[in-house]
Amino acid sequence: MTGPASGRLRIVGGAVHDPANGVDGEVRDVCVADGRIVASLPPDAPTLDARGMVVMAGGVDIHAHVASSAVNHGRRLVPASAAGDPARAPDLAAGEPLARSGSGGVLPSTFTTGYRYAGLGYTTAFDAAVAPVMARLTHAELDDTPIVDAGAFILAGNDELLFRFIDAGERERAREYAAWLLGAAGGYALKIVNPGGVARWKGGGRNVTALDDAVGSSRVTPRAILECLVGAADELGLPHPAHVHANNLGVPGNVETTLASMRAVAGRRCHFTHLQFHSYGGALGGAWRSGAREAIEYVNAHPEVSCDVGQVMFGPAVTITADAPVEYLLHKSSGRRWTNIDVELETGCGIVPYEYKERAAVAALQWAVGLELFLLSADPWRVVLSTDHPNGGTFHSYPELIRLLMDRAYRDDQLKRVNPKLLAGSALADGLAREYTLNEVAVVTRAGPARLLGLSRKGHLGVGADADVTVYARSANQAEMFSTPRYVLKGGTLVVEEGTLRRAPVGGRLHVRPAYDRGVEREVRRFFDDYGTVRFENYAVGALRDAPQAVERGGVAGPEPASSRPAAAGGPPHRDDRAGAPDARHRNAAPRGDRAPGAPPSGGGR
Ligand SMILES: [Zn+2]
Q1: Where are the alpha helices (H) located in 463-552, listed in sequence order?
Q2: Which residues crowd ion ligand 1, with CB under 5 Å?
Q3: Residues 501, 119: contact at Cβ < 8 Å?
Q4: How far apart are CA 356 and CA 400, in angstroms?
Q5: What are residue 149's DSSP bridge partners?
Q6: DSSP letters along 36-97, please?
């Protein structure tokens, strides 16, 4: 029988894949009460029959572009994609809020984004590139993206005020500024995109190409920016380390830059995003070839490093990034339409609609490089799934990607269809036998991302976890299996029933408000007075729908609302030894100062 909309529910008899708790396909019941996983329920509790099916936690998307001014500009560039995929309002159950129609395509509209993520069994997603000055828009859009719990990474790697602190040798001030900025924008993590390169290009110069290129001042270099922000994220005790899009994205030979960037921050937790776009071998600017082996060997050997793959999938895409100089090059080389948004002082943005074709040699290489990273990864907890939606392909293509990972025969068939011109020396062309297991898929799509994000209640089914649960009907075709889950629960509410979206609860907001030395506000305010087009008092997004996640800095916990506190009971939701990451609670001592723990970063309430 079908269970109730929410409340208590026993999911009966499914094969549970919960790798965070060491459960690998064991047939057992999963019990839900009041939005959480519980150890047991009385015998008369309502049940959901999952016999013969596969049960996992809800999916967690660590890197996508779903809610920002950049995404809105992207939507305007692909009207045909939206028109070709009209999304009618779902038939929600009686008593549900009004269902919304929208558009799909490569950049679905807000409501459709939430509906479709849930329809794939995903219940958490992060927008990976939000300009701080536009963060208010992101939060408004996320408010209109139902079901999924969502957050935003805040762009900080080309920020003029940050550069001034670095130039002055004031790394600690830079760290306090980064903490203020994150809280002001309501972000979850610090994002670094092409450190220094965007600022230099915006200033009329050329993009940087190496870690020690000067960005205005010889003291401000990609290396210095990386060291500063990776260190800041670590010292501030942020749940997710700095999220880095390295220099030289998409350029032949860039794997050397990627490895140099990893070495520059060795020993610090750091997440390198869409690694596929940064794993091309050979000489910089020379001929294209795979550099996946070099990249993944480093990742395999360094437990403090994590990545998401940024897989390229054949079909339509929109390249959309704060890395404006890269998009300028793509626009010039492809002749495709584009837009360039120089967002205030903080960052940049370029967008070029694109299509990856099997018969195009570079696209085929990119497809192969992504699969090599997955298939050569020694630790799937640190090499997690993304297509950098919609850059390498849309999130709709995740089920197809899962099939490529799980089914070698299918993958080899696909390999025969692609242009082999640039695949010499590729591990994939040489033959990779690995097939991901269901547990490994659970790792790269939920348990791993949740752990890397420091989300102790997500990505697993231990007691105390959020009751975000996806139930899949088995199929020999994994793409089919993962594209149409039979049941999805979000926070204990049954949102997908018998494969149909039936409920659309409001999604939560995941954000942090790290403590910082209030002394830094004087300099920020002066900078706003001198250069800002927005008043300091009007900049911060103010209170958000949900309380911030707890941030523990220098061993001193910030204020933590009861609602965000992980339950003490239950399994080990966040075991860093398994993730291979250093203990997240071991931080370098941070200066105390007259810090404002959790206080609104500036005016607040706006
Ligand atoms: Zn991205």
Answers
A1: 478-483, 520-531, 536-539
A2: 128, 388
A3: yes
A4: 15
A5: 124
A6: EEES---TTS-EEE-TTEEEEEPEEEEEE--SSHHHHHHHHH-HHHHHTSEEPPP-PPTTSP
CA of 64 to the centre of ligand 1 (A): 6
State residue 554's pLDDT score: 59
Distance 125 CA to ligand 1 centre (A): 13
| Structure token digits, residue 187 | 């972000």
CA distance 388 to 257: 20
Could you tell me the distance, in angstroms and rounded to a whole number, from the CA of residue 146 to the centre of ligand 1? 21
As a whole number, mean pLDDT of residues 345-366 equals: 96
Tell me the C-alpha distance between 59 and 385, whole Å.
10
1: pLDDT strictly greater than 90: no
Average pLDDT over residues 375-382: 98
Q: Residue 553's pLDDT band (boundaries 50, 70, 90)?
A: confident
pLDDT at position 345, please? 78
At residue 206 the predicted structure's pLDDT band, cuts being 50, 70 and 90, is very high
Q: What single letter denotes the amino acid at residue 519?
A: G
Taking the C-alpha atoms of residue 502 and residue 498, their distance in angstroms, rounded to an integer, is: 9
| Residue range 534-562: mean pLDDT, rounded | 76
What is the model's pLDDT at position 344? Answer: 73
How many whole angstroms from 152 Cα to the centroid of ligand 1?
A: 12
What is the CA(451)–ligand 1 centre distance, in A?
19
Rounded to the nearest whole angstrom, what is the distance from the C-alpha of residue 569 to the centroid of ligand 1?
A: 36
CA of 427 to the centre of ligand 1 (A): 25
User: Running DSSP on this structure, what letter comes out for residue 278?
Assistant: G
| Ligand 1 centroid, distance to 65 Cα (angstroms) | 6
Q: Structure pTM? A: 0.91
**275: CA distance to ligand 1 center in Å?**
11
Q: Give yes or no for a contact between 332 and 324, defined as CB atoms under 8 angstroms apart.
A: no
pLDDT band for position 434 (50/70/90)? very high
Q: Ligand 1 mean position to 563 CA, how many Å? A: 30
Burial of 106 (0-12, 13-18, 19+ CB in 10 A): buried
The maximal CA–CA distance of the chain, rounded, in angstroms, is 70
**Residue 80 token pair:** 């045909």
Distance (angstroms) between ligand 1 centre and the Cα of 63 equals: 6
Amino acid, res. 595:
R
Distance 191 CA to ligand 1 centre (A): 10
